[in-house]
Amino acid sequence: MQYHTSHRQSLLKTAILWITFSIVPLALSAQNYKLNNGEGEVMVTGTSTLHDWEEVAEQKSGSITLDNTGDLPKINTLKFTVEAESLKSGKGAMDKNTYKALETKKHKQIVFELKSVKSISPVTSTSNKYKVVATGDLTIAGSTNVIELPFNLTLNNGTVLLEGKKALKMTDFNVDPPKALLGTITTGDDIEIHYNTVWK
């Protein structure tokens, strides 16, 4: 009886050790990085009948999980969020019209969430910079579309840099381009999102 008990305990310890060592390499291979709000920039640019305009996101957050064990980094997860009312143009009236168009009382955030990576390739054979084309769900003002997002990914001493730009139409997300001065100034439907973000 004593032998059977000790033998069973020995088998149990062996099984636990085997499971632990099987899981550890998986945990070590994937690294999670958080977006640093204090560095980098996310900016939206557009046009109007009066002048071109730009708005900068003052509050942004997100996370990315990378597996660096292969020849090319593998992006397992990517989620990026901008607080809608943190978009600032430096002009209060314009910001107010933007928040109204985005219905920020109901829809507090603009969110991109990765679905898949279509392609990833090194910029040069010796660099740690890669060209990526990803697809994901982009949600603006409560409407979600699948978009293709191109960007450069750079790995640098525990830091990840993501930079790129993406053209969009407001009406694709059921957003009416903002108007001002009783409709005499109209914002163009086409906008462009420029981003240069730092993840640690």
UniProtKB/TrEMBL annotation:
Superkingdom field: Bacteria
Record InterPro entries: Lipid/polyisoprenoid-bd_YceI (IPR007372), TTHA0802/YceI-like_sf (IPR036761)
Residues of the Lipid/polyisoprenoid-binding YceI-like domain: 32-200
Family annotation (SUPFAM superfamilies): YceI-like
Coiled coil: none
Record protein name field: YceI family protein
